[in-house]
Amino acid sequence: MTITEDAEQDRGTVIPLGEYADGDFYPGYEPRLESRPFLAEPLAPFTRADEGRFWMRDSQHFAEGITPASMGLLEDAQTWGTQYGAEIVGIPPTAGMVNRIAGVHVYLGQCPITSIWQMGARAERFGAFAGPRLADFDTYWAGYRAELEAAYTHFDALDVDAMGRAELREALVDAIAFHRRAWGVHFEVMYLLAANYVALFQLVTDLGLDTGQIPKWLAGEETAYLRTDEELWRLAARARELGVAGALAEPTVEDVRAALEREADGAAWWAELEAFLAVWGQRTDETATMDRPSWAEHPATPLGSIREFLTRPEGHDFAAARREVLAERDRLVDEARASLTEEDRTRFDAALASNRSANFVWWNEEHNFLIDRRVHLPIRRLTLAAADRLVADGVLDARDDVFFLFRAELLDLLDGGGPADCRSLVTARRDYYDHWSARGGELPPVVGTVPDAVNDPIMTELFGLTPDYFATIKAQRATATLSGFPAARGTVVGTARVIRAAQDIDQVRDGDILVCGGTTTEWTPVFGLVQGCVTDTGGTLSHTAIIAREYGIPCVVGTGVATSTITTGDRVRIDGDRGVVEVLG
């Protein structure tokens, strides 16, 4: 599926859905929405009617496709969570986002509000909601942090091995309620901060300043993920000090453990890794994905990062990098202020102060550790405990068969009901998943009718769906020069490494140019290795843009077609000042 010259029609550029609009989905799937307030529109497979709207493939969060068990997580997060958050905050032009599924792959679209009256009423509500929370954001966020951490303490303390079916079902219902609550908190705060950021963006535009500088004015704050990276680099250094670096070259976690047992200080190093995992290991490599273990369960990802860090003996100087970011931040703010009149400087200072105290650039990384990569782990733990009971009772053949049951089906099984023949259903769904997951590389990054703009601040600032992005999608063909958003300054020439899924980041080598659909927090460690980064999606507040600036590497996001134009091994030049990427051959 490609954009053709004759696709420009009165109703805009249309990228056909083709076979993805057939309504095909997992065998035996029955939509069973629960009663939830503020649900503007449900998650569903694509139908032909969806061709009249715009849909972006969310390869940032769901690169490999989604299993039945993860469907409930997705619905809580991007569908219900965004719609709940948009309603609570009162974002005027959007009712949140909604998901569509092509095979097993996730697409994301907007639920726009077009009523002038509704937009006006919501704007009034937004002002009343936002004012006190932005005025004391630290207290506001600290309250939610305490609530979330208390829930983790509760669920982590559960003795799931001692629970029977009924107790597991009750605890699972609680974990699901917590999961939904956490995503409501997530998008309430995200929409609040995004709207505040957009207000600063508009002021900067009105003042004639460079809007591309805004994220740099807010940079330099430490986050949980940068602290995680620093600890991983420290563990690499400790492996050298203890003489166990060779053992970490083994390809699997099990092989590493065996090799460390043969080293005099192997047990000491592993103990340090376990101490790291106790603090930083309650995270998975993808959002809302039930079938992926946490780092604490299976530390393949941190071991892979440490293994690659060992190829760079000089390490990474986090303190020096932060000093450089802060120095640039202050210099750029001083330059902007010097160009303004006294009256405009007062407005600028107030808006910047508001965005620094309620800092989206910082929060968008910080909250991932507390919510996005962690909040589904209580459900996963209880689901696996339930799977063990169902295997023991002869309902399922293997533990991971439970990932091919929808949430409602698992709850029914624990209650004595459920599908009559789980084995045949699991087999059919595994076959369906394998077929569609393997076809992920064929699916287009966007489908439907390409607009000139969307009005959802999260879709514009995080996913990069700006007017420039849509112009690129409409106009860009296979070409040796790509245009996008200049996310981090500098120019570099290097060899491309195209990565399509988070679990493949261990393929990244020191000095590569990373090319991908977009990055999220699990990609952070590779930014200490690569020379530059290019993505299909992403805006001013995307993870890629934020981390590239913190690491000081040239970066261009939101090119629209990087992964479909560049191949691994290509020589590419990134101009992070102009937002241009050239394929040199």
From TrEMBL:
Residues 509-579 form the PEP-utilising enzyme mobile domain. This is PEP-utilizing enzyme. It comes from Actinomycetospora lemnae. The lineage of its organism: Bacteria, Bacillati, Actinomycetota, Actinomycetes, Pseudonocardiales.
